[in-house]
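Re-run with default settings, no changes from the original entry. Doing this only to confirm the output is reproducible before filing.
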Amino acid sequence: MTQEKVQEEADRLSRMLARNLRAFTLNNQSRVRELKRYGTYGLRTVFQKVPFLLQVNLPDLPGYVEADHVPVGIHGFARTEFVKPAIESFVGSRMVFDKAIAVQRPVVDSLLLMGSTGSVGHTATSDLDYWVCVDQANFTEESWETFGRKLDLISLWALEAHHTDVHFYRVELSDLASNRLKAHGAETEGEVAPLILKEELYRTLLHVAGRVPLWWTVPPGIGLDQYRKILGFLERAVQEGRMTERFIDLGFPLPPKPQEYLAAALWLSQKSEADPFKGVLKIVVIQEQVESRLSKPLLCDQVKEAVLSAREEDLPVDPYVMTIQRVRDYSRGQFHHRALDLLRMSIFFKIRGAFYASRSAPDSPKARFIQDLIQDWGWDEAQVEHLKNYASWPERDKLALGQELKTLLFTLYSHIAQKLMDEYPDEVSALDQNLAGLKAWILSRYSDHQAKVEDLPSTQHRDILPKTFSLIYNLGRWELYSGWVEAWQVGTDQTQGRMIYECSRAARVGAWLVHNRLWNASIKLRLRPRPGPVSLETMVGLLERLASFFPPREVEASKREGGRQAGRKGPRVLVVNLEEAWHERRIESVDLIYRAPWGEMRHTSLMLTQYEDEIGKYLAMAELVLESGEVSVEDVHLFVPEGLFGQKIKRNMRAVFTQVSSGQRRGLLEPGRQEGKTWLDTD
């Protein structure tokens, strides 16, 4: 090709990229305005300041790290809209400011926001998920760690000073371009479903600063080969000085394989614990693709085509609107009546916000879109008002809806998994073995058996439940209520909808509170039991012991590791005579509480009145413990209410378990299997 032809091609490509870049930029600016419209004051403040905090490392500013050669700088920061507010808030002269932002080799090639930011899906509780795109070759091991500390400090400042959750995902450009996504400091689904994550990134990204993703400026509908040809031409043009280094390659969004859809469905089943409304919406997107035998166009392609062809007065093109419209159209012919209701409620709450209504004027795009959906679904005014008052619903109603959503999520996941197994058995069965642990954790979360202590439907409910509880013994059942409730109020209008949990054993209530992280030092508990030893002091003592043995970090570690703790032993807590009369001389009941390898909390109880001799009771208790899994005697901890015979029970149990552990009674344990001391603690 002659030099003249090369220049003609460069000019043509430059015009095309410039035209598409302008469309992308206009839409991006419109979405930034929507971010400022819907965001809280704290979120807007953080959004304005984060780029500047990444550009500099100054002692008086958040994110300062005291170290030599702290990595800073965003490509092209001086040309962004963030310079002006930084100047206005900067303490010092313009000369000092200009010197501070002058970075010879900026380490951040592109700073992007991913998710609902700047869309109708942005609510009062939305966070900021930044993708920090870097070339890790520009870092040493030490500077990489220093950069991570800087990001952590900025996140801490955002949370403490502005009550805004900020997450930074450091993304290595070569990994992203080749679809090898790793999590640096925070988990994403990129390790199990990189192409699905890339599709979502391209569809929802908001460009904050730095170089612009090339894919967004190339023509819609082109394939991988054409994309690579344009990329190669640009790289040569930049090297020869004919074009500026304005674009960045984040890779091409290829159609995901069947195994990725299964992995993404698994991952969503876990992450939906935090926000089931969003989880339902996202898993239906996956189901639509699976039902179409993976033939539907990628949503990111549709959003891009809409953006690049839109008139300026029609901006912004909202990726959440387009996603919801596609889900709405698909679900009409696929979902039965109640499932369709749950999906529509999920969409409504995801846009408007479940507990805190998002900021939106009556004429805003969000308000207009919600009204269009309400009319399309045929909801009457009373139904809409009922949903708007979700935060004021009785606790039981909120928990019941959460349970329905949890069941729907598992039903959708099961349908997706079965469909993929039927149609792509070879591809799906070839999934990495690491997913076996994640699958086991999911099945454990959604399982339902007698010993399993029930989960809250989602972690959202933990945040909205009150900090005071009343525990009341009523007609053979223990009932847990929100707020202060007297025994005489049970069954009246004053307690309607306030009961949040009930079971037959007080120990199980304690296990439920601890497992669902509802118990901590700030919680106030009122107890109205039947006459007996279950005093407030005893119950609080049990809760404190359970909280010390079963910290929440163990469950989170099990999730992160995909259940790889399966073989690990854990503590067993035996609660003796918790509900017996204070003067009882014999052991009458025992409750066993322990955590299974996949994060389940389990509780079983045993009434011991059927045994005539005390030794038989102790041996039955030993069998109960050993049936819970491989466990050493040192892992068994005893809780006995304070009383005249508590010490006697402890001494007897110590003696019996010592014999059992050495194999002298019933052969329950093989001789010589245990090491060290074999008595129970006396807590």
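The longest helix spans residues 3-38. DSSP finds 24 helices and 14 strands in the chain.
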